[in-house]
Please model this.
Amino acid sequence: MLKLQWLQVHQFRSVRPGTRLTFSPSFNVLLGQNGTGKTTLLDLVAAVASSDFTPLQREPFDLEYDLAADTGRITVRVRNPPEAPDGSGLSMDIVVAPRDMAWPLVIRREGQQVTVSRQDDTSDVVHERIAPEVGGRLWLVLMSGGIAWVEKTGEGTAAVEPLLAMAREVSAQAGLGRFDEGLAHFERLYQVDLRLSRRAEGVLATGTGLASEDLLDGLRKVAAAQWGSPHFVLPSECVPFLHDATRLLGFASAEALLFPLETQPQGRYETLALGNLELSFLGAGGQRVSAWHLGYGQKRLVAFLHYLAHARAVVIADELAHALHPRQLRACLEQLGPRQSFLTSQSPLLVDGLTFESAEHVRSTFVLCRREDDTGLLVWEDLTPEAAEDFFTAYRAAPQRVGELLQARGLW
Model:
């Protein structure tokens, strides 16, 4: 899993220049009053963790960050100057060091020009033009750099396969966004478009929007048998996020329904577009409840479990505890597994469920957010070693809720 190691902000909106944050590979909890930039930081982390800066291409910024996994490390500095508000001046300086590659590559993207060199031999340089649609997408820049190296040096694809593998790992996080504090994700869940293609070797399912792999895999399992039906029925057993929601909400079963929109012949294949998703839950007595008729907190739970089906390595959730029962919140935290998470909550329920093994564990977990009174700048900072040690000493000394302890120490 590719995770965010650190982030340095040289320029971004009203954030204090020089801000540098280090992150835990597991829980990262943002603490601060309203208006201190917690949501802004979550959105920035989403852009950096997904390495897609196209949503920011119309505003100036200058950022550095580091992504690492068992497969290697990628260090990036990305700039968008104020004189190029359309994103045409966006530049990236990238050092990519795959674990199984003998030498790191330095890739520089300036506008539509990519320059590639070995870190230990800057004289060995390759230049290549890239298409405008590459935009601010890091994985496309990595792939362009790797392909350019192979084409210009003749070394063969095997020489850069570890680099291309890391590019694919970055691309797996494409579309990562912030799980919001309301029901926006739940509503977008229904804006799903799927396409089936029936071939001799089986049915291929593809999708756009919030079409998670869970949904696509479930559809592949039932599509051939239900081809020609007025609707496709996916039982919850075929859709893991729906199966988890059924269990946590206390229903007996659930199903997803998709309806054919159009059928098109395509050579030897037949393609079928599906949409108008419906989700229904069934009680033990056989009563059927549409997901639209669930309670507010139940909808947020369903939406978050679906979000997790997309967010395989990194989770970014705003006000996660909002409207969730404590038992459901604990279940959501358990569902995070080995993912790296960036979370906020003004409810102590979130932080009260945390445990700590050391002062360094405390320090790596919390990010403090505030706004300077005199300048109006947003200040984001890690705990000092002294504050972390003070908190951990009090945490071990006497049983006390984490939220109360944070407030008593002036950290929240």
About this structure: The chain has a mean pLDDT of 90.
